[in-house]
Amino acid sequence: MASTDTEGSALTAGDTSSPASSKEPVNEQVIANLYAAMRTELNRIYSKITELEMEVSEHTLVINAIQPLDPSRRCYRMIGGVLVERTIKEVLPAVQRNKEGLEEVIARLNETLEKKKKEIAQFESKYKIRIRKPDQEDKDDGGRKEGSAQGVLVGPAGASD
């Protein structure tokens, strides 16, 4: 019985997070929630890319600082929260490998970002989603009747009701 509960919760989590599930969204609120989740994921990807780019920048600064120095000179490196003493000859290649690894991750995240942007654009066109600007709320509501909605109208990404 416990395994059934685990499987059921996994299915539920998969259905709510994926806008491409077999069920079509039922109403505008569900569509708006899916769209907001997609935008949140896009923002997380942007944040992660920015964070990793800052780390690459720090790695570059370290590499530029220690490269011209004597390779037998002592230096200190933080590994897992522990400061260890090494030589520049040992540390420099490791820092360069870390930087290259970060750059590869950034490249993959950029690919994911582009896919997510396309997915959001398709979702917007499929459901005729328009972004409501805070200063346009009065202008948009003025000439329309309540029952003549043309699509889903979503507020700014950071707005909370």
UniProtKB/TrEMBL annotation:
Residues 131-147 have a biased composition (Basic and acidic residues). GO terms for molecular function: unfolded protein binding. GO terms for cellular component: prefoldin complex. Gene3D superfamilies: 1.10.287.370. Residues 92-126 form a coiled coil. Residues 1-25, 131-161 are annotated as: Disordered. Keywords: Chaperone, Coiled coil. Residues 1-21 have a biased composition (Polar residues). One of its GO terms (biological process) is response to cold. InterPro entries: PFD2, PFD_beta-like, Prefoldin. The keyword Coiled coil applies. It holds the Pfam family Prefoldin_2. The keyword Coiled coil applies. Belongs to the prefoldin subunit beta family. This is Prefoldin subunit 2. It comes from Acacia crassicarpa (northern wattle).
